[in-house]
Amino acid sequence: MELCQIDAERCKGCELCVLVCPKDALAMGDWRNPSGFHPAWLAVPERCNGCALCAQVCPETAITVYRRLRKRARDAALSQG
Ligand code: SF4
Ligand code: SF4
Q1: How far is the CA of 49 from the centre of ligand 1 (A)?
Q2: Structural domains in the chain?
Q3: Nearest alpha carbon, ligand 1 atom 7
Q4: Is the pLDDT of residue 73 over 90?
Q5: What's the 81 CA to ligand 1 centre distance in angstroms?
Q6: pLDDT value at residue 76
Q7: CA of 29 relative to ligand 1 center, distance in Å
Q8: Between residues 43 and 78, which one has the greater pLDDT?
């Protein structure tokens, strides 16, 4: 499963995620979303290491990184146990 998922309909095409990705895993699509923006997409998923930098910079909160979410849930469970 891809670690990083981008909600293309929420993306405003600012390109910040593409610029910040240390693995060069993201790219801007050449198609348009329903709002008329070219959305970012995970062009090379095997490069993604789940660092979540892209999600941190996205002003539209359009990016979810699943490994980080799972780790947070595990940490919360451990702290309660
Ligand atoms: S989680 Fe990190 S490596 Fe993966 S696409 Fe986002 S910035 Fe790049
Ligand atoms: S940072 Fe967010 S809004 Fe900007 S291009 Fe990436 S997904 Fe789209």
Answers
A1: 6
A2: 4-80 (3.30.70.20)
A3: 21
A4: no
A5: 31
A6: 74
A7: 16
A8: 43
